[in-house]
UniProtKB/TrEMBL annotation:
<dbReference type="GO" id="GO:0120147">
    <property type="term" value="F:formylglycine-generating oxidase activity"/>
</dbReference>
<dbReference type="InterPro" id="IPR051043">
    <property type="entry name" value="Sulfatase_Mod_Factor_Kinase"/>
</dbReference>
<feature type="compositionally biased region" description="Basic and acidic residues">
    <location>
        <begin position="74"/>
        <end position="84"/>
    </location>
</feature>
<feature type="region of interest" description="Disordered">
    <location>
        <begin position="25"/>
        <end position="84"/>
    </location>
</feature>
<dbReference type="InterPro" id="IPR005532">
    <property type="entry name" value="SUMF_dom"/>
</dbReference>
<dbReference type="GO" id="GO:0005783">
    <property type="term" value="C:endoplasmic reticulum"/>
</dbReference>
<protein>
    <submittedName>
        <fullName>Sulfatase-modifying factor 1</fullName>
    </submittedName>
</protein>
<dbReference type="Pfam" id="PF03781">
    <property type="entry name" value="FGE-sulfatase"/>
</dbReference>
<feature type="compositionally biased region" description="Acidic residues">
    <location>
        <begin position="48"/>
        <end position="62"/>
    </location>
</feature>
<dbReference type="InterPro" id="IPR016187">
    <property type="entry name" value="CTDL_fold"/>
</dbReference>
<dbReference type="InterPro" id="IPR042095">
    <property type="entry name" value="SUMF_sf"/>
</dbReference>
<feature type="signal peptide">
    <location>
        <begin position="1"/>
        <end position="22"/>
    </location>
</feature>
<comment type="similarity">
    <text>Belongs to the sulfatase-modifying factor family.</text>
</comment>
<keyword id="KW-0732">Signal</keyword>
<feature type="domain" description="Sulfatase-modifying factor enzyme-like">
    <location>
        <begin position="107"/>
        <end position="382"/>
    </location>
</feature>
């Protein structure tokens, strides 16, 4: 009965959203490609509905509510040790790890101190993109690229770190990427977003399931890293996750009140500037931008701060807890709410399309629980000071620009 009741509510909201979107700017389109939290996520959505009537009216019909994680099948210690052995074996086959120049793929760019307009009043208000507000930040450094599989492999090689997806034994993968053999084994699905499937054995080394590999994808962004995993990686690298304000300022590249890191035109001079979805999601992916799934972290032109793929390719974790309520007053170095249930992610992914997930914009945002992971979610790190080991590389890169 519960399911039918929920289905009716969803249907009503779906019809309502058509009525509303027909009257509003076409830019406030529905979305729902974000994925996949634990049980916390559902509770969080309910809390928001109780707190803010506007959120109920605008709630998208296809909010993905993922089932709880699969419990551990073995003791954690056994699982971790087994995974460490398996991972060491796989990583030892990556020749790129022995390349001295490839040891740490990422460089960092200095983001100057100053004030910028964070958020927007004109787009997806239910996500808490507004109000547009003045935010002042001290200078900081931001990773040039999304964290790559190669970097993550170095981290795992040095530390033996086992990700949450590996411990939980499952992660969410876009259905189109899963092999027929693996599809046949899956019995669970997320009713509200059936294109997301929990795949046993999907993790950063097996991005689309246990029969897939990151060989040949070492310069692509690492996938299936939870927020907790991302924090550990950044600590290892002598960095930290950016705040949402830092991420957004960095993505805007010094431009004020623009939709995208490069300006307001989605296709300037007809050029693809970002890895998103072309075609009708989720049935057709024409990959006109050159990529059906992730692209290399250095594909597409950088923004004016020298950052690549901030929007599109993969969503990126930031440190803030998620809220849709923001103080409209000017703020200095804001860090988001002190507590919360889910974390903010920024930038949209290769699964975003204007008609479905218009979130490959600088102000756009979404959320997931800190232990969740999926095949379109990654991160990049920030730092107050440039780590010593990067000083030479970054100086060289600047002189080449
Ligand atoms: Ca694409
Ligand atoms: Ca990105």
């Amino acid at each position: 009965m519960k399911v039918f009741k929920k289905a009716s509510v969803v249907l009503i909201l779906f019809l309502l959203s058509f009525v509303i979107s027909a009257e509003e700017s076409p830019k406030t389109e529905d979305s729902g490609e974000s994925c996949c939290g634990g049980a916390d996520r559902k509770e969080n959505i309910q809390t928001q509905e109780e707190e803010d009537d506007d959120v109920v009216v605008e709630e998208e019909p296809d909010v993905p509510v993922a089932p709880p994680r699969t419990p551990y099948k073995a003791s954690e210690e056994d699982t971790v040790e087994k995974k460490q052995r398996e991972n060491r074996k796989i990583i030892s086959t990556f020749k790129e790890l022995n390349d001295p120049d490839g040891k740490r793929f990422n460089s960092m760019q200095l983001i100057p101190q100053g004030t910028f307009t964070m958020g927007t009043d004109e787009m997806i208000t239910r996500d808490g993109e507004g109000p547009a507000r003045q935010v002042t930040l001290d200078e900081f450094y931001m990773d040039t690229y999304e964290v790559s599989n190669l970097e993550f492999a170095h981290f795992v090689k040095e530390t033996g770190y086992v990700t949450e997806a590996e411990k939980f034994t499952t992660s969410f993968v876009l259905e189109n990427l899963i092999s027929k053999e693996e599809l046949a084994k899956i019995t669970q699905a997320v009713a509200s977003s059936p294109w997301w499937l929990p795949v046993v054995g999907a993790d950063w080394l097996h991005p689309a399931g246990p029969d897939t590999t990151i060989k040949g994808l070492l310069n692509h962004p690492v996938l299936h890293a939870s927020w907790n995993d991302a924090v550990k990686f950044c600590e290892w690298a002598g960095k930290r996750l950016p705040t949402e304000a830092e991420w957004e300022k960095a993505a805007r590249g010094g431009l004020q009140n623009r939709l995208f890191p490069w300006g307001n035109k989605e296709y300037p001079k007809g050029q693809h500037m970002v890895n998103i979805w072309q075609g009708k999601f989720p049935e057709t992916n024409t990959a006109e931008d050159g990529f059906a799934a992730t692209c290399p972290v250095d594909a597409f032109p950088p923004n004016k701060y020298g950052l690549y793929n901030t929007v599109g390719n993969v969503w990126e974790w930031v440190s803030d807890w998620y809220t849709v309520q923001h103080d409209p007053n000017p703020a200095k170095n804001p860090k988001g709410p002190p507590t919360g249930q889910v974390k903010v992610k920024k930038g949209g992914s290769y699964m975003c399309h204007k008609d479905f997930c218009y979130r490959y914009r600088s102000a756009a945002r979404s959320e997931n629980s800190a232990d969740s992971s999926s095949s379109n979610l990654g991160f990049r790190c920030a730092a107050n000071k440039l780590p010593e080991y990067l000083k030479k590389a970054t100086t060289q890169e600047h002189s080449e620009l």
